[in-house]
Amino acid sequence: MASESELLQSVPTSLWIGGPVEATGGGTFPVHNPATGEVLTRVADATPEDAVRALDAAAAVQADWAATPSRERGEILRTVFDRITARAEEFALLMTLEMGKALPESRNEVRYGAEFFRWFAEEAVRVHGRYLHAPSGTGRIVVHKQPVGPCLAITPWNFPLAMGTRKIGPALAAGCTMIVKPASETPLTMLLLAQLCSEAGLPDGVLSVITTSRSGAVTGPLLTDPRLRKLTFTGSTEVGKKLIEASAHGLLRTSMELGGNAPFVVFDDADVDAAVQGAMLAKLRNGGEACTAANRFHVQNGVLEEFTTKFAEAMASSVSIGPGAEAGTTLGPLINEDQLNTVAELVDDAVAAGAQVRLGGKAPGGPGWFYPATILTDVPPHARILTEEVFGPVAPIVGFDTEEQGLAAANDTEYGLVSYVYTRDLDRALRIAEGLESGMVGVNRGVISDPAAPFGGVKASGFGREGGIEGIEEYLSTKYIALS
Ligand code: NAP
Hints:
This protein is α/β, with parallel strands linked by helices. It has helices spanning 4-10, 48-67, 70-86, 88-99, 103-123, 162-174, 188-199, 215-223, 237-248, 272-284, 304-318, 337-352, 403-411, 426-435; strands at residues 15-16, 20-21, 28-32, 39-44, 130-133, 140-147, 151-154, 178-181, 207-209, 230-234, 253-257, 262-266, 294-300, 356-359, 374-377, 394-400, 418-422, 440-443, 462-463, 476-483. The protein binds NADP nicotinamide-adenine-dinucleotide phosphate.
């Protein structure tokens, strides 16, 4: 296993357009280590012209890639899965360095992220159409699925590998080419992945990576270029809305995986110990910087104190905060100073409104952007932390009396990505799961992500699904051929 400095020296830092290429004008921007604030390295800073070069490359090979037998496409994807898995430690350390998360979290992400290549390697050969006789007897109907065409993927920093592979896997499996614009905070993982895809036999131009510090200016020309056919975005609701507007010009197909504000609902009849275990995962996975992170805990008053006490004990005894690459760390730093300030502000606002701090609640100070695991109780309904995405290791807990009140509180949000519910009553579990306004529900589970399941939201959490058999549909268009 390479040392940190050897690893950083081996990772590509140029753009990836049919191989490594410098940005026009030779500009670069820094990538920071959130555990220290220091510059890890610099990467190429793409210009709008570079983005168009990537689209030129994608458009040039689109027809050949679409015509490549699906078995062959699938086998390349499977080779990528094998190679990521073989180099899992490199990917994990790289993500920890640029994003901050603890190494065990990065290892989990490598397993999860790689799995999208294996899953879609298997789905590539299962794109089916239909053949039927028109009920009117007037002819035959053939339904044929074709790749949408060149796609642009814009991804966030919180899962530098998996947020890309969830898009690249199905796009390539469907026969689409793709340009990825990773978050400027975490460009290195995606550049390493592009190099590895090339080594695995992916033809030049099928996958390009453009890194930039000027996202809007660089991706803008692509969204209005008639050769681009799809935009797939994961990130904040605010940016997602802007991109939908920009995509209207070319009537692009769009998939939007946006922000979340997940409720975690615990009923009196729940197994409280299991709920605490689930809460630890739902809150602290990825240091709370996950769109699926439980943002607010609604606990029925009969078990409110027991749940709160056990949750605080579990956090106090098992969370070890520190640089993500250090042995024993379970909670790394937040991504940057802005994020640290946002989390601190939301906690301070809740406390000023009357919330009690049961655990944590104060940033330890630099270097690095650390915030401790925190539990707030007696959080008043108007506290911002109940309505805004906290994206940090902070758990606000509020009580409720009746099932109706619990469900209403859970649904009282503009978002609708995921919800969690803990109860031993199967009827209640199904009733609540059906009543929750979210694209996904975890019943007696604190982690729900699975490459074989359709991931996605409703309301302000967006539309489109990633993973499952639905994931590849996002990259296919349907053609109807009428026969006599
Ligand atoms: P963000 O600020 O929306 O950025 C996401 C991506 O969009 C980054 O690559 C960013 O580039 C780019 N971007 C920003 N402004 C742009 C513009 N005007 N035009 C084109 N691209 C632009 O979100 P984030 O802070 O990175 O990520 C956190 C958010 O992602 C949270 O809200 C979280 O819930 C959401 N998320 C959702 C899911 C899901 O599946 N639903 C999964 C993970 C995260 P720069 O880095 O250069 O700004």
